[in-house]
Amino acid sequence: MSYGLSLYAVDLTLARGAIGCGSKQLLDMIGKTYGQHITRDDEYFAYEIAKGAPTGHEALRAVVEGGPFDKEHAFQYGYAYKRICEAYGDRLDGNSFSPFRSAWLMHVDEGLTSLGMTAVSVSPFMYSLPRPLPRAELPGYGEWTPEQCAQGLAQWEASTDEQRQRLDFEVLEAIESCVGWMRQARSKEGYGIAGFGS
């Protein structure tokens, strides 16, 4: 099975703060901006919706209102939270990670470690959603805080050309993408990275 990553440079505190904030303004803004995308996603998930999953708009409302959540259809709340990160943040290029097989993230993490880049890893982008959202199989979710991004960039700068040349070309290309994400996040005060694997 192949996966992909969707990544956003975003103020993680702001994005997490949207969970349970109850903001009608946020719901209206996302509905107006992404309404067609949400409708298209509902068509894709029509089978699950017919079996009782919330629609995209219903899931978004539940996330913003802090529940209630139907654990059986947790995936919809993950995609709703992804919309929130998209609304608040800047989309990052994840081409080095789409599509990929499950072992790929582990290979990239091994490459990061070999360069001394221990502040960040890509495998957590397949972990679970922030609380209180229910655990979903997909999408996976992970974060790099602003501090992790700063430390990861410092570790990249401390690595040598010799270390980098020892890496498989595709792994190095993926790590260079990670460096680009961190640089983009660091260009805005308080921004980190939110990653969704699906």
Describe what this molecule looks like in 3D.
This protein has 198 residues and is an alpha+beta fold. It has one domain (2-197). It contains 9 helices and 6 strands, in the order ββαααααββαβαααβ. α2 packs antiparallel against α4 (56-65), α6 packs across α9 and α7 crosses α9 (169-186). The radius of gyration is 17 Å and the shape is globular.
Q: Concise description?
A:
This protein has about 200 residues and is an alpha+beta fold. It has helices at about 10-15, 25-45, 45-50, 55-65, 75-90, 105-115, 145-160, 160-165, 170-185; strands at about 1-5, 5-10, 90, 100, 140-145, 190-195. Pfam families: DUF7691.
Helix content: 40-55%
Shape: globular
Number of domain units: 1
Q: Work out the helix count.
A: 9
What structural category characterises the helix and strand content? alpha+beta
Which band does the percent of strand residues land in?
5-15%
Trace the largest sheet across and list its strands: 3-2-6-5
N- to C-terminal distance: 10 Å
Quaternary arrangement of the chains shown?
A: single chain
Largest sheet at a glance? 4 strands, antiparallel
Estimated radius of gyration? 17 Å
Strand elements, count: 6
Mean pLDDT: 95
Order of helices and strands: EEHHHHHEEHEHHHE
**Which segments are poorly predicted (pLDDT under 50) over 5 or more consecutive residues?**
none
